[in-house]
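Appendix B, example 12.
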Amino acid sequence: MKIATGDSFTYGEELEDRTVSAWPALLGYENHGLRGASNEYIFRTSAELAPVATNMIVAWSECTRHEIYTHNPVSVMQRYTNFTGIIQVNSRWTDIPWFRELYGKYSEEQHQFLRTVVNMVTLQDVLTANNVDYRYCSAFSNQVMFKKYKDDTDIAPWIARLNTDKFIGFPDEGFVEWAYETPRGKGGHPLEYGHQKIAERLKQEI
C-alpha cells in the first residue's frame, strides 16, 4: 500500500475535488493528510500505518502545532466546534487561555523544532524496520528552521542523524518552493496547478 501523510497541503484543502487533484491522488498514494495537522499527528499516523505500507511519503508540517486530547468541549477556529477528543492546534488558532499561556508564552520555538527533528529520526527508524520505501519532504517552515538551527548544540546532532538521501529538497526546498507562483486559495493553499507541480517534483525522487 502506498501512503501519504501530512497536513492540509497533503489533504488538499481548498481544492475543488481533493480526491483526484491532491498530490497523493496524482501519484497513486492513499491520502492520510489532515487539515491543520501537527508533526505529532504526522509521526503517530505514519508509525501506525508502517506495518501495512510498502511506500510512504511523509510531508512534515510546522513545529508550532500540537496534538492534544481534551475531555472538555473546545472550539478552535473553523476546525472544531464543541469538540472532545484529539485535536490539532497552535496558540494562534484559539482563545483558550491556558493553551495560549502554555504553548504561546512558555513553549520555545527551539524546543518545538527539536521535538520535530527527533520525531523525524525516530520515524525513519520505524519505517526502515518495517521495510517501507519512504521519502520525507517539508510542506513549509522546516526549510527555514533547518537553516536557523543547523549549528544549535541540541538540534544539530539530531539533524546529522537524518537520512537526507531520502529527504526530498532537504534542507532548502519544500511544497512552498515547488508550487511557487502557482495560484493559491484564500487560505494560502496550493490549488490544482500547485499540486501538479508538487507531484512532478516528488515523482522525480520516488
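Residues 109-129 form the longest helix (21 residues). The beta strands are 2-6, 30-33, 55-60, 66-76, 80-89, 133-138.
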